[in-house]
Amino acid sequence: MSQQGEDEELRRAVRARAERLIEPLIAPIDRGQRFSPELWAQLRELGIVGFLFPEEWGGSAGRFSSFAAAVEELARAGAIAGLYPGTTVQVADALLRLGTDAARRKWLPRLVAG
How far apart are the first and last CA of the chain? Predict the structure, then answer.
């Protein structure tokens, strides 16, 4: 299957899950303006935080285009769902590229797992 085909397959799968499990969580999150452990649990189960990271750190070694497609579908369900993974992904990426071996071993598996 082509990369574009894989991206579209992932997009469809994330859209279906987001419509079913994430969209119902959005209105209460927006009203309460608080962090939602339920939403975070859904994102963890989906594996979105670790999607871009190497398998050796617990990630899926996915492509950025696939990650972007998945985040777009999360945001379609509710903008906040598309934003939740951002900070963790940014921190994990900086640690992967710039961290010491000891820091990577300590923090990357936990960050990548969400």
Answer: 29
DSSP string, 6-59: HHHHHHHHHHHHIIIIIHHHHHHHHHHTS--HHHHHHHHHHTTTTTTS-GGGT-
21-41 pLDDT tens trace? 999 999 999 999 999 999 999
From residue 18, alpha-carbon distances to 37, 81, 100 in Å are: 16, 9, 36
Report pLDDT for 4.
82
| Torsion from C-alpha of 77, 79, 65, 49, nearest 10 degrees | -90
Q: Measured between alpha carbons, how far is 31 from 50 in angstroms, rounded to an integer?
A: 28
